[in-house]
Input
Amino acid sequence: MVPSPALVERVDAVFADMDKPGHPGAGLLVIDHDEIVYRKGYGLADLETQRPITADSSFYLASISKQFTAMAIMLLAEQRKLSFEDRLPAYFPQFPPWGAEISLRHLLHHTSGLPGYIHFFSSSERIPEFTRDITGVTNEAVLERVMHLPRTDFPVGTQYAYGGTSYVLLAMIVAIVSGQSFADFLKANVFDPLGMKHTVVYDASRPARHKLAQAYWEENGQFERWDYPLLTAGDGGLFSTLEDLFLWDQALNTECLVSKAALERAFTSGTTNDSTPVGYGFGWITNVFPYLSAAEREQLLALGEAGLHHVAHGGSCVAYYNYIIRFLDSRRTIIVLTNCGPIAPAVEPHHPAIPGPRVRAHRVAEILFSD
Output
């Protein structure tokens, strides 16, 4: 499909508040099957140089990174190098006894009972202090803090609680099993095979980031530059572009990385011990409706049956706010990446469907895909 000029005008209006001089902005990608039907940058990637956002601007993905971590685990599972039922002590022998109940499946579905890790390092609500506190935090530092916990927050498998710690541990397990760093494993097994030339894991090696969309947060009507400070990976850590994410989206429609059965497993909700669905698969929300306002529900329902069968995820970290939704039956995808954070520290939101870019993405879906 090729959007009409009238539809393009309506889509652009969704981002009009960002698409103006001296303002950070967003990148939008709309995919229909194997075709990019709309791709545009709004606003600036760098306020100092006035460089605009383009399809090859690099954004921090934040929690959208989780789907790549899950893919790494699925790749190793298909190679029979690990099992989803493996327990933490198999990879971390020094783990406290309560870790023996936690499987990789619990980590993937956020049912492990492990708390989020950011509060281990900072409780500040002010961005400058928060940034100072978390600068240089690594996966190893997170593991060390987890090892000193007296117990999980709730009995393993009894609840769903979204957070980052489980996916940090999964990234470390990928490194242990593969004998490579997490970054090297993804590069060799995902990024390079798919041609994702400008996607990197930002870890202690501090790799170069292609045409970085610099992040900004607003205070007293002024935009303040924010430099991403963490060195953790697995729960976040990836920088990527709209162009590379198109290649990722296309791979998820094929078996070029893992089998169809593995992908179906990733897109299917996990359950608690009593078989209650948690609405989260392997790195993907399997149902965003519980997070939506009434107006947003109507937007997805306007898509008919196609709006019901979807997977999605958000990602936020202070000044980067992102969202991806894939409509599985119609094979349509919308991705919104932004470099302007509207609120105080939000590395681990209480849910993984970030409101700002989510609202924009769903509005675009309604404009372009509703009958």
User: Anything to note?
Assistant: The mean pLDDT is 93. Residues 314 and 355 are 8 Å apart (CA to CA).
